[in-house]
Design a protein that fits this description.
There is one protein chain. By secondary structure, the chain is of the alpha/beta class. Helices cover 29% and strands 17% of the residues. It contains 10 helices and 12 strands. The chain has a 12-stranded mixed sheet with strand order 7-8-9-6-5-4-3-2-1-10-11-12. α1 (44-56) links the parallel β1 (11-15) and β2 (61-65). The longest helix is centred in the N-terminal third of the chain and has 13 residues, at 44-56.
Length: 324
């Protein structure tokens, strides 16, 4: 499947819940949000059906997100069914890691290929301030369990801000002796992130190089997304940058998103897309669903306009409602 710009769309991010056991400052307000009723969330059966259709259009990679996907029961069963779909090559999960250690054996048995763990600090006090909950020890236990699991690709995602500047180097150092990719993701003006100052890749890289030495590009190691990888001398792992604000990668965007309520979202910046759940509820057949899905993907926006003035179709939901 290609969109109207000729970009090949082979990557689908599926949010399976808007619920989370943390309340991170750039994701949810301190008082929390009103959860979507469970009856309004896509069932696993609906997710599997839609994924089969996406696979028939050329989607090969699935990432399950939230909210926090590990708070929804039966995640291992969903992974097992998704892995059985012809054409689906990898199924990965993005998690805050706090529930990972206990669930990892079941997820691996189901066929999980990779895990991204979101972690912005190694300081327990700062963790509690950012996440508005305790849980650093559980997150680190999840990270260590993942790194000890043969055959599992492990990445750590950090959103660098002024508040966690003291942690950029310690987080990067986690990749020194382990096969870990530590990725720094520029803060995007989506949801609550729009009211927070971010750090540019250039400033962050200068900070890291002062402490770690030059960052040598990892040639040919781009992965399936926009991250650009580098390796300081002596590192077993690598450091990556995902910089939507200062290194726009819209021309090579290969992904769409499916929210927990069944909205096919074709760009993180906009509310562009189409509601699929009403079609499922009304008994639409596969041909009708495919027609609507193809139409939405064909009209995927050319690019975001982060940093420019707002527009009428800009996304207004919080990140837990979108799916990261």
């Amino acid at each position: 499947m290609t969109d109207g710009q000729g970009r090949s769309i082979d990557y689908l991010r599926i949010s399976i819940t808007d619920r989370c056991n943390l309340r991170c400052v750039y994701c949810m307000p301190a008082e929390g949000v009103e959860w979507v009723p469970h009856a309004s969330i896509l069932s696993y059966e609906e997710i599997v059906r839609l994924t089969r259709l996406f696979a028939s259009l050329g989607v090969r990679r699935i990432r399950l997100t939230g909210g926090e996907p590990l708070v929804r029961r039966g995640l291992d069963d969903l992974i097992r069914e998704l892995k059985a779909i012809p054409g689906i090559e990898t199924v990965m999960v993005t998690t805050n890691g706090t529930l990972l250690r206990e669930q990892l054996p079941g997820l691996m048995s189901a066929g999980l290929d990779g895990v991204n763990i979101s972690l912005d600090t190694l300081d327990p006090v700062q963790f509690a301030a950012i996440a508005r909950r305790s849980g650093l020890s559980s997150a680190l236990a999840g990270l260590n369990a993942a790194l000890d699991t043969p055959g599992l690709t492990v990445k750590l995602n950090c959103v660098p801000t002024l508040e966690n500047a003291s942690q950029w180097v310690p987080l990067a150092e986690l990749a020194r002796n382990r096969p870990l990719a530590v990725r720094f993701i520029e803060l995007m003006p989506i949801g609550l992130g729009g009211g927070m100052p971010g750090i540019s890749e250039a400033d962050l890289r200068a900070w890291l190089e002062e402490a770690l030495g030059p960052l040598a590009p990892c040639e040919g190691d781009k992965g399936g997304g926009p991250c650009r990888y580098f390796r300081p001398a002596g590192f077993r792992g690598k450091i990556g940058f995902i910089s939507a604000m200062t290194h726009q990668f819209c021309s090579t965007c290969n992904r769409v998103r499916l929210t927990a309520t069944g909205f096919l979202k074709t760009c993180l910046q906009y509310d562009a897309g189409v509601e699929l759940r009403p079609l499922l509820s009304s008994g639409a057949d596969d041909a009708e669903l495919l027609r609507v899905m193809e139409g939405a993907i064909l009209n995927k926006p050319l690019r975001h306009h982060f940093g420019a003035s707002s527009q009428s179709r800009d996304e207004r939901r919080t990140m837990n409602q979108i799916g990261g």
